[in-house]
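Sequence in, structure out.
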Amino acid sequence: MVRISAGNAKGRRVGFRKAFSQSGETDELRPTSAKVREAFFDIMRSHIGGSVFLDLYAGTGGMGIEALSRGVASAVLVESNVLRVRMINQLLSQFGFEGKAKAVCGRAIDFADKEAERGSRYDIIFLDPPYNSDELMKILPLIGEGEIVREGGLVVAEHFFKTKLHGDIGRLRLVKDYRYGDTVLTVYKLS
């Protein structure tokens, strides 16, 4: 279970792990820990207000809902599991965010590609694919082309500490890595 730690939804709980994991699919649900979530929002503090937020591997929706609680203008949460998408949309409605956010069912890479074609731009993109996948190696170069990130926008990848990401990727410039136990947040800025 994820508890929102700040903003207008502070203290509210996002889903129940059991409900989110009983999806009929074999993918593992690994919500971002409270410690890492808090660190992410500390890092993003000066960028959150009024920004457009994209979570490409939404899982429970906790990061997107926390971002909305903390003041992003709008958010899109992408999740490949249709049952999780339904649950996230229900939570968005319960929390009063349905006009500012939506959960979309699909693969992150496909969504990013379609958004680039549409000309959609985001200020902050958060990536937290399954640790044992090669998703980051596939999607970061696509995002690095700069088609879905606003100029000066930030991309933050959460990954296992043994996963080594390249420095600069396309137009994404490495800002800094932050390590929290086995988890690393790697921050890039579009230039």
